[in-house]
Design goal:
By secondary structure, the protein is of the alpha/beta class. It is built from eleven helices and twelve strands. α3 crosses α10 (270-282) and α5 crosses α6. The structure holds ligand LGGBLMCM. Keywords: Acetylation, Fatty acid metabolism, Isomerase, Lipid metabolism, Mitochondrion, Transit peptide.
Length: 302
C-alpha cells in the first residue's frame, strides 16, 4: 500500500511529520537497513541516543535546553529516533531520560501555543498526538528515568512508559498541572493518568493541577520507585533487565491488550480532537491565561 505521509501500524495510519526527510521514500527494508542503529550513538540535535546493542537497549536523552519543552522540532526528532529503534530488531527496550539538569521535560512548549495561527496549532497538536500514540503503543519496554521536574506534557510522556523511576529531590515534582495554566488536559491525557493511578486520585489531581513531590508521587502510584538521584540510571537498568526477562511476544500482546482501547479512542477522533484543540487554544481568554502564566515564569527569575 502506497502512503505518502502515513504509515500503517496494525489497522492505524500514523502521521509522518518527517515524510519529507531524505530516505523517507525508501522501502521499509532498505530504510531499516540504512537506518540500523549499531553500536555507535546516533540521534539528532535534540534527542541523543546511546545504544547498547549487546544488551538490546538504548538510552534516549532529551536535550533541548533549557527545559526540554516539547517544541515541534523536539516532538519530530523524538518520533524519528523512536521509529529507528522500533524498526531495528536489535532493540527491546529504551530508557528515557533528560540531558537537561534538573528538568525531565517542562511539557508542551508554551511558545507553540501562543500567538500562532490555527494551521500552526493544528500541525503542533497532530505532532503531540503522534508522539503519544507511538509511545503508548510501543512494542519496546519503555522505562522513564525521571531526573528532574516533570510537569504536564513531561508527565504525560513518563506515563506512557511501562515503569517510572523518579529521583528523590523535592524540586522534581510530577503531575498534570494544566488547570493551573487555565487550560484543560484533553481526554487522552486524562485516560493515561486514570489508567495509572485510578479514577478518584486522577480526578483530584487533575482538578487541582497537583504537582506531586517524590514521596507523594510514589504513594499515589504516579511513579513506581523513588531513589537517590545518583541511582536513577542504575535502577532503571536493573528494572529494564527484569522486564526483558519476559518473552517479548507475551509481554507485547499483554501490553497491547491493556492499552489498545485507550489509544483507539484517540485514533477514532484525531481530527475532531485537533479541531477542539485549535478552537480552545485560539480563544482570546486562553491566550491571555497562557501569556499571564509565561509572564509569571519569567518573573520568577527577576
Ligand atoms: C489546551 C489543551 C491542553 C494542552 C495540554 C498542555 C500541556 C502542557 O504541557 S502545558 C505546559 C505546562 N508546563 C508547565 O507548567 C511547566 C512550566 N515550567 C516550569 O514550571 C519550570 O520552567 C520548570 C520547573 C520546568 C523548570 O524550572 P527552572 O529550571 O527554574 O527554569 P525556568 O522556569 O527559569 O525556565 C527556563 C526558561 O524556560 C521557559 N519555559 C519553562 N517552561 C516552558 C514551557 N513549557 N514552554 C516554553 N517555555 C518554557 C521559561 O519561561 C524560561 O524562559 P526565559 O525566561 O526566556 O529564560
Amino acid at each position: 500500500m502506497a502512503l505518502v505521509a502515513g504509515m500503517r501500524v496494525g489497522s492505524r495510519v500514523l502521521f509522518r511529520p518527517w515524510a519529507w526527510l531524505p530516505g523517507a521514500a525508501l522501502g521499509r527494508k532498505e530504510s531499516a537497513a540504512r537506518g540500523r542503529v549499531g553500536a555507535r550513538g546516533f540521534g539528532s540535535q535534540r534527542v541523543l541516543v546511546e545504544p547498547d546493542p549487546a544488551a538490546g537497549i538504548a538510552v534516549m536523552k532529551l536535550k533541548s535546553p533549557p527545559v526540554n519543552s516539547l517544541s515541534l522540532e523536539l516532538l519530530t526528532e523524538f518520533v524519528i529516533s523512536l521509529e529507528k529503534l522500533e524498526n531495528d530488531k536489535t532493540f527491546r527496550g529504551i530508557i528515557l531520560t533528560s540531558d537537561c539538569p534538573g528538568v525531565f521535560s517542562a511539557g508542551l512548549d508554551l511558545m507553540e501555543m501562543c500567538g500562532k495561527n490555527p494551521a500552526h496549532y493544528a500541525e503542533y497538536w497532530k505532532a503531540v498526538q503522534e508522539l503519544w500514540l507511538r509511545l503508548y503503543l510501543s512494542n519496546l519496554v519503555l522505562i522513564a528515568a525521571i531526573n528532574g521536574a516533570c510537569p504536564a506534557g513531561g508527565c504525560l510522556i513518563s506515563l506512557t512508559c511501562d515503569y517510572r523511576v523518579l529521583a528523590d529531590n523535592p524540586k522534581y515534582v510530577i503531575g498534570l498541572n494544566e488547570t493551573l495554566l487555565g487550560i484543560v488536559a484533553p481526554f487522552w491525557f486524562k485516560d493515561t493518568l486514570v489508567n495509572t493511578i485510578g479514577h478518584r486520585t486522577s480526578e483530584r489531581a487533575l482538578q487541582l493541577g497537583i504537582l506531586f513531590p517524590p514521596a507523594e508521587a510514589l504513594q499515589v502510584g504516579m511513579v513506581d520507585k523513588v531513589v537517590p538521584e545518583d541511582q536513577v540510571q542504575s535502577t532503571a537498568l536493573s528494572v529494564m533487565a527484569q522486564w526483558l526477562s519476559i518473552p517479548d511476544h507475551a509481554r507485547q500482546l499483554t501490553k497491547n491488550m491493556m492499552r489498545k482501547a485507550t489509544a483507539d479512542r484517540l485514533v477514532k477522533q484525531r481530527d475532531s480532537d485537533i479541531q477542539n484543540f485549535v478552537g480552545f487554544i485560539s480563544r482570546d481568554s486562553i491566550q491571555k491565561s497562557l501569556q499571564v502564566y509565561l509572564g509569571k515564569l519569567r518573573q520568577k527569575k527577576g
